[in-house]
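Q: Got a minute? One more chain.
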Amino acid sequence: MSVQIVFVHGIRTSATMWRSQLAYLDERGMTATAVDLPGHGTRLHEDFTLHEALHTIDAAVRAAAKKGPVLLVGHSMGGLLSLAYTGGAQTPPVTGLIAASCTSLPHGAGLAAYRLIAGAVNSLPDRGLWLTEKILDATIPLETRSDFAAGGYALDTQDAALRSLTTLDIASAVERIRVPLWFINGQYDQLRVNEGLFQRLAPHAELIVVPRTTHLVTAMRPRVFNAALQLAIATIEAQA
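A: Always. Here it is, folded:
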């Protein structure tokens, strides 16, 4: 059976952030699913809850596991949720995990500062979307530039989602993970702050740092990220 890939997006964006990866896998005849978390993308009308977010991941993983071994791939908030899910008390049918741009524990001064900045941007004219577009124009190649916004921005859900992450015991979850694990970070990603801790908690994990990228590593250098994705797929295939 072929490897099944399940993608979990980050905060504010949606399943569309994975369009480059989905196209890459489709060209190779591989099956992949990108979910929309509650309050995001096609589910903008819903409230975000941690329970429903984890249920969304679980439903997608269990459906995929009926067809083959599952590689779970999460970015930012989606990466933290995927770590919490894979390292939960009940072992799910995940064969490998890529946790991208999320080696930071979601609590303390760092998260408080992020929420403060996000709130300030949200209070700007047009809710700061003009600023977001300027940043994307300056940092993201044209081929992937529209992917983050294509499913809409979850501006009303953002703070509730960030607040809910503080209840996750990510350190304990990472320590419990026994499947192949990859941490993928951009060289200049602000969420590398606890990178060393995550490596100590999961000494079997591989750390891949992508040069000349920031937090949006999947879109800034999609070919490099896809190469890392292929590495994970090949590892699972070899073990199978």
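A: The CA atoms of residues 10 and 78 lie 5 Å apart.
Q: Perfect, thanks.
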